[in-house]
């Protein structure tokens, strides 16, 4: 009886610790949202950020590394926009969310998938207004696009040790953010993350290499999404 009582006490303590950890994770998520909302308010007030490209790249990497990790309960499945799980068909990205956006190349022929931030969404026209995250280096920083030209990025990381099905498997054709750039390109998953801190190992299509692919490059979960086929490719 004493052993049974100790066992129940241990279970109760473990459940309490789990609840505290979940509350802490929720607080962290709330702090991230508040910081993002303040940044958006400052931008709308006309306080433009002047950030160098190198600093932007570091910020994007940090943002991906600190993206909330999905920690589900027993038998709980990862939700949409966790890892490789796509958004629901009717989902609309929120103002300030990062997305992949298909935009026309300035002074060029064709289109590119770029990393952008949602500025607004018109429910009447079903169109987004998105800002190129490196707008100061482009001729047109804001773009008006239909929903099919916008892909929401993951809002949570998937844990390979508990939810491997929420990640792209080896050999999957994907779109991924090429390191040190703000553009998504077609590639193949050479190796998926093994732990929640790992990144994908991606082989990007690149005709300059004899094999037709780049050497393995590392890309965070947040910047790897399902391939989108378009009639025009660059």
UniProtKB/TrEMBL annotation:
It comes from the Eukaryota. CDD domains: Tudor_SGF29_rpt1 (cd20393), Tudor_SGF29_rpt2 (cd20394). Its main location: nucleus. One of its GO terms (cellular component) is nucleus. Residues 89-233 form the SGF29 C-terminal domain. Keywords: Coiled coil, Nucleus, Transcription, Transcription regulation. InterPro entries: SGF29, SGF29_tudor-like_dom, Tudor_SGF29_rpt1, Tudor_SGF29_rpt2. It is found in: Nucleus. Pfam families: SGF29_Tudor. This is SGF29 C-terminal domain-containing protein. It comes from Tenebrio molitor (Yellow mealworm beetle).
